[in-house]
Design a protein that fits this description.
mainly alpha; Rossmann fold; Glutamyl-tRNA Synthetase, domain 2; three-stranded parallel beta sheet; three-stranded antiparallel beta sheet; 20 helices; 12 strands; elongated; disordered N terminus; binds glutamic acid
């Protein structure tokens, strides 16, 4: 079934509707990605709505973090972001029209009466379902405090043909007359979502399955207004590697932590999130173009997917190797705080092909590039210092002499010279290579020593060796 079939010929419109009460987390980012891909696949629109109606908990830094995270991940929405709170008058107008049309009513239940109902439900061990005596009355005094409630259907059942969850049915008797407008006249979340989705022309509501229950409370609002129902697709939440719902306990959940602390590339995180709960055959590495070509809701898994940081890192390594050297060098320079005209940018760029083959994240690149930025005498790591003892000064002296005599400072010449020193001394190559590595980098691990020698250049290379000759 194509998407336009289901929407009766309306062009596909999806949306991402985050509440700016915290940062953009990976679950939200994946929801946004699925919405974007579905819209692009069908040549439709992907909209963004900031659900900032909870004034106490919505913050500007959270809004900024969400927009920033979406841009970083290339989750480009169409048009301007819609801010829900700014539309409160429209929401209220819809509620009043619903009262006029007999689909909602003014309810004057007092706090005490509500408390009594709550106590009664508790005593009977039943969930609280408000059945207001005001449902069929129209004689309430307008100037007295009241809320506006939906006149929800009392009998029958509501069925949702969810594109991910399948057919889900709830008995209407289980739903209550939810509040649309509070006594201060402000709209509730349930009303605002429906009015906004309708006004924005949203045809497909793709969101976390923690909202499935809400769909049953939102549908009657569409019906009451005679608006076309959206197609629903409720996607399973992301769980941690231990199977529990993903939370702070599982480490970084905010997008910016993946970028700033973990050095993940946006295309790697995007690809990983895509594969988390959706698949196309055995494809692992999927470009955005292919994702748009292939994405469909039918291949979204029904069970929660587990977040696996190791997989993400592997994927990141793949994308680092595929990334342009200049882009990576820029990211590393940024982390090191190098000025735009810093002379060390050139060797950093030159080192990138060597550094990126062994990096799983940007931090590894920064770490690997460290030897370029230290000045003599090099600090020697504690675990590397012993490698400079014993025979090492003698071997390094021989190496210094052999390398100093070279005409060509290239891999072949360097390798021949180092091998010959080892042979002449009657030791294995490693016994020469290890102290050489420590002398050049101060560490036990580094890129290949011949690469290191070339990147440092003859003068600096020889000088670092000379520092450790007895
Ligand atoms: N604002 C809701 C949230 O952040 C999403 C509402 C929706 O997608 O309908 O969970």
């Amino acid at each position: 079934m194509s998407a336009t079939d289901i929407t009766g010929g309306r062009p596909v419109v999806t949306r991402f509707a985050p509440s700016p009460t915290g940062f953009l987390h990976i679950g939200g980012a994946r929801t946004a990605l699925f919405n974007l891909l579905f819209a692009r696949h069908h040549g439709g629109k992907f909209l963004l709505r900031i659900e900032d109606t909870d004034r106490a908990r919505s913050t500007q830094p959270a809004i900024d973090a969400i927009l920033d995270g979406m841009r970083w991940l290339g989750l480009d929405w169409d048009g301007d972001a819609v801010f829900q709170f700014a539309r409160a008058d429209r929401h209220a107008a819809v509620a009043r029209a619903m009262v006029d049309g007999g689909h909602a009513y003014r309810c004057y239940l007092t706090q005490d009466e509500l408390a009594a109902m709550r106590a009664e439900a508790q005593a009977a061990k039943k969930p609280l379902r408000i059945r207001s005596p005001w449902r069929d009355r129209t004689d309430g005094p307008l100037d007295q405090p009241h809320v506006v409630r939906l006149k929800a259907p009392l009998d029958g059942a509501t069925t949702i043909h969810d594109r991910v969850q399948g057919e889900v049915t709830v008995q209407n008797a289980e739903l209550d007359d939810l509040v649309l407008l509070r006594s201060d006249g402000t709209p509730t979340y349930m009303l605002a979502v429906v009015v906004d989705d309708h006004d924005m022309g949203v045809t497909h509501v793709i969101r976390g399955d923690d909202h499935l229950n809400n769909a049953f409370r939102q549908l009657p609002i569409y019906c009451a207004n005679g608006w076309p129902e959206p197609v629903y697709a409720h996607i399973p939440l992301i769980h941690g590697s231990d199977g529990a719902k993903l939370s702070k306990r599982h480490g970084a959940v905010g997008i910016e932590a993946y970028r700033d602390d973990m050095g993940i590339l946006p295309e790697a995180l995007g690809n990983y999130l895509l594969r988390l709960g959706w698949g196309h055959g055995d494809e692992e590495f999927i470009t955005r173009e292919d994702a748009i070509r292939w994405f469909d809701l039918d291949s979204v898994g029904k069970s929660p997917s587990r977040f696996d940081i190791k997989k993400l890192e592997n994927m990141n390594g793949h994308y680092i190797r595929a990334a342009e050297d200049a882009r990576l060098a820029e990211m590393v320079a940024d982390r090191l705080g190098l000025a735009p005209d810093d002379a060390r940018r050139a060797p950093l760029l030159a080192a990138m092909p060597v550094l990126k083959v062994r990096a799983a994240n940007i931090g590894d690149l920064v770490d690997g590039a460290g030897f370029l930025f230290v000045s003599r005498p090099l600090p020697i790591a504690d675990d590397a210092a012993p490698l400079l003892g014993g025979e090492a000064p003698m071997l390094l002296a021989r190496l210094h002499a052999a390398l100093d005599a070279l005409h060509n400072w290239d891999t072949e010449a360097l390798e021949d010279a180092v091998r010959k020193v080892a042979e002449d001394a009657g030791v294995k190559l490693g016994q020469v290579a290890q102290p050489l590595r420590v002398a050049l980098t101060g560490r036990r691990t580094s890129p290949g020593i011949f690469d290191v020698l070339i990147l440092l250049g003859r003068d600096e290379g020889l000088a670092r060796i000379a520092d450790h000759i007895a």
